[in-house]
Design brief:
Largest interface: A-B, 101 and 91 residues
Structural class of chain A: alpha/beta
Distance between the termini of chain A: 31 Å
Number of helices of chain A: 18
Shape of chain A: elongated
Helix content of chain A: 25-40%
Strand content of chain A: 15-25%
Radius of gyration of chain A: 25 Å
Mean pLDDT of chain A: 91
Low-confidence stretches of chain A: 1-33, 97-105
Oligomer: homodimer
Number of strands of chain A: 18
Largest sheet of chain A: 8 strands, mixed
């Protein structure tokens, strides 16, 4: 991070980039090349079956309504009011001309469609949560009537999003929708976004806005990397000192139990799971401040040198702490899964500590500290498994040979992911990909194409192995991200990943994606998100205004 | 967005992605987070800055500014602005600011509640900052609070410094350390280029940008207002330029009133507005509303539908430019206008038969001569309007004769040699080559910006003195309202201001 070496590396990189000329990057072209072409009324991510026709229906904003079939519920009612605004809102005042965005085919208005009938087959009342097994499929028919059918509420929510994206406004100010058939279901069940709230604090407001944006991209798992080395903003009721001592500021830079509950409820209403990560035994510096004795003391020249390493796996108090702590976590986070981390455990500190060495000898681990790590993770997984929770762990845990529950999901983040996913699925575990989706790692220009083309099933394995891929996650690590840029840097750069995870594998043509992504970005801007430019010079009909 | 460009980017990002993740955080001492911050220290660093541990309290409720003999609306505006900037935005009190405690034992000497601002030169009337403005000031904190400046422009800089010296204790009390500041800028031209053609940037964000510039003591807003992709500047003489050339002629334009508002807002902050109308290249958007202005490109003996740079062979070109720049010179009061002149491609000129014919008639053996011919005529037009001009380096590289007070703007790599050459010719110069802040990369990428020094080239003292400053450039390929503030005022630029001010 702040090491001089890394700085230097960055400096060199920048220099190399700067040597290329400036605005020079735009060569001479035809007049018509500006701005980037945008589609109009096309959905992102692309549905499984999407058949628009040139026939157009008008949609009367004033008289539009949603109706439910037998299974109405508060989740649907909330969604109707939300999607009314998302469909018709934010267009701003009318201007006469939208250059190069004219709707080209001669518009034949077939009639007016002012009621969307939403038919959900399964009851959706009560405090139900989306799960890894939720059915998100739906069918949407536009013309001659407007009907959305879904097995579960979660599919209905996705279908409402699609509907809201099909409606567009003509230059006349009239809203219209093309006659369209949509039959849709996600390719992967776990379509996540990791947000790191430890390296920088991200205010609740921005977490909620992030959830809104996720729903607009049909992402369904908010992976909340809530604590890490730099800070511990999660307020634990059982161990209040963790945030009192470990947060950047224990009053202003924390998530109270009420905040956590609000985030989870907000996500539930959007059909998004909240997957909490409490990463151990490494990445825990901030834990040590409020829980003395938890971390390993590092030694130099026979004495404690003032530094701390990973959680001390040799003490019984460690496991009693973890029992109480994860018991609380399992109550506060209703999702079946909790993410237990387990990545990047450095052995240096363990190696230096005399009582750890003694423990190693007693246990017969020799000098194999991977065994010690395995020992820790095994005990942690038993604790969490005992709470009737499933868990997701970073790949190192399985690489180290730790025994995990059958429904464990292995989260692959390192390079060489193709081999790793081959190996992990051969062992029969479900797996998630993030290696190619570190969207915090920005570079100059249009850097979304490699995100788009990375396919999580593109590794050597049987069909059965491929089916163990439950999805993937875009990762927004927080070294350089706080309230100031969390929305603009995540959106729309997470959108290509959202399409990769939702749409059919053969939806991978960049040229076809560019105008749709351009529309999608502008749509997000119209809906109030500072979604940054990813395609070069151009404009949106409605530009972002804070 | 050519496929080639895409694949180069893809390779680049792949290389970057090979680096690992959050991994970058390894074992540290527990106190390593968060980064250490100073408290109540100014940026950019003043020439003389001598703080002492003695602390005065500053009572927000009773604080006031007073002027000496030379009071004026510019000062009154500044007082109300700086009152808010000094005391505002702290939000509700929280008990603890972890690792940000003010370390030395605080001895509160007394209270300082009046800042006396003494400006030696009258500041009433519609005065504008210029390249020659005096921005020096002295600020004494303790036992009284006095800001002295020769001109209003120095007083504005001093008020900014004052506002940065005040900080709030954990107790909620505002304090200021006893401090002596004697300050003046190293360079007179400390600019920020903003490109409003590749993406439109709403007026609101232009004004916010000006506010941010003032807080970094930057004093030139270089408005790269039009370029190939769009022509948002509404010309009264040639309304078709925007009607046809803007992304949207109603919503994506700067009206005369908008332009005037930006200039006035900048003036109040002591910032010059330097308009750039780049020709003869970078003019695609001009061609849409001004038929016949651009060179028609030919293939196989016929116009192929594409256009190149402005056509330098037609008399109508120069009558257009005369009228256009006459308007520009009236709308933009600054002495200087930026005339561009960069990156002129000869391909289209070479393809066009009447250009070829003209070359023959004029006896030009190279297209650089044709470019020189165009620029010479343009400079004469603009010079005739009693304006000075700034031009990109290519104009001088091509041997065009320019006015004595011309400023040559260096943007290409190999800038050390270029600035050596340009200053040897006796021209003033500006550096931007190392300050393309639109070029983001991952992580802490500001150190090369900070280290780049515009006088770090081979030359005599006299040559070095011809460096009038530099500009951070925020080109607009990937920048619109969504990120213009966060990407620009990313410590990034702040770094440049330090290099250019101190």
């Amino acid at each position: 991070m702040a090491t001089p070496l890394l700085w230097f590396a960055h400096a060199c990189l920048l220099m190399v980039v700067l040597i290329k000329s400036g605005d020079a990057a735009i060569p001479k072209r035809k007049l018509a090349i500006f701005p980037t072409t945008q589609t109009k009324g096309q959905p992102w991510p692309l549905p499984r079956v999407y058949k628009p026709s040139p026939l157009v229906y008008s949609v009367d904003m004033e008289n539009f309504s949603f109706t439910s079939g037998a299974n109405d519920c508060p989740l649907l009612a909330d969604a109707y009011s939300r999607y009314y605004k998302l469909t018709f809102g934010g267009f701003g005042k009318q201007t006469k001309r939208y250059s190069s965005l004219r709707f080209h085919p001669e518009i034949k208005v077939a009639g007016s469609l002012n009621v969307l009938s939403v038919i959900v087959q399964t009851p959706c009342t009560g405090k139900i949560y989306p799960t890894l097994q939720s059915d998100e499929s739906y069918n949407l028919t536009v013309g001659p009537t407007l009907v959305l059918q879904a097995k579960e509420i979660w599919g209905a929510l996705r279908g409402l999003e699609t509907f809201s994206q099909l409606v567009y406004r003509l230059e006349s100010g009239e809203f219209v929708i093309n006659q369209t058939l949509v039959q849709d279901f996600p390719r992967f069940a776990h379509r996540g976004l990791l947000l790191d709230t430890s390296r920088h604090f991200v205010s609740k407001h921005y977490l909620l806005r992030t959830l809104d944006a996720m729903a607009q991209n049909k992402l369904n798992v908010f992976h909340w990397h809530i604590v890490d080395d730099p800070s511990f903003p999660y307020i634990s009721q059982a161990f209040p000192n963790l945030s009192l001592k470990g947060a950047f500021n224990p009053e202003s830079h924390v998530y109270t139990p009420a905040d956590v509950a609000e985030v989870i409820e907000y996500a539930r209403i959007l059909g998004i799971r909240v997957l909490a990560e409490f990463d151990t035994p490494g990445h825990t510096e901030s834990w040590g401040k409020g829980q003395p004795g938890l971390l390993t003391e590092c030694f130099s020249q026979g004495g404690f040198n003032g530094n701390y390493g990973p959680i001390d796996p040799t003490k019984n108090t460690t496991y009693s702490f973890l029992s109480t702590f994860f018991n609380e976590v399992s109550q506060n986070f209703p999702d079946h899964y909790v993410h237990l981390g387990g990545d990047e455990v450095s052995f240096t500190c363990w190696e230096s500590n005399p009582s750890v060495k003694k423990f190693m000898k007693n246990m017969g681990f020799g000098t194999n500290f991977a065994k010690l790590e395995e020992y820790y993770m095994q005990k942690l997984l038993e604790i969490v498994g005992g709470l009737q929770k499933g868990y997701i762990i970073w790949q190192e845990v399985v690489d180290n040979g730790v025994k995990v529950l059958n429904d464990t999901v292995v989260h692959v983040w390192k390079d060489g992911w193709e081999e790793e996913m081959s190996r992990v699925t051969q062992l029969g575990y479900q797996t998630l990909l993030s290696s190619c989706w570190y969207i915090n790692d920005i570079s100059y220009g249009s850097d979304w194409t490699s995100l788009y083309t990375c396919d999580p099933q593109n590794f050597n394995g049987t069909l059965a192995q491929k089916e163990l891929v439950v999805g993937g996650e875009a990762c927004m690590w927080g070294e350089w991200v706080d309230n100031t840029v969390v929305l603009s840097r995540t959106w729309p750069r997470a959108s290509p990943i959202a399409e990769r995870l939702w749409s059919s594998a053969d939806v991978n043509d960049l040229d076809a994606a560019i105008p749709r992504l351009a529309e999608h970005r502008c749509r997000m801007i119209r809906r109030g998100f500072p979604a940054e430019e990813v395609n070069g010079p151009g404009f949106c009909d409605v530009e972002y205004e804070e």
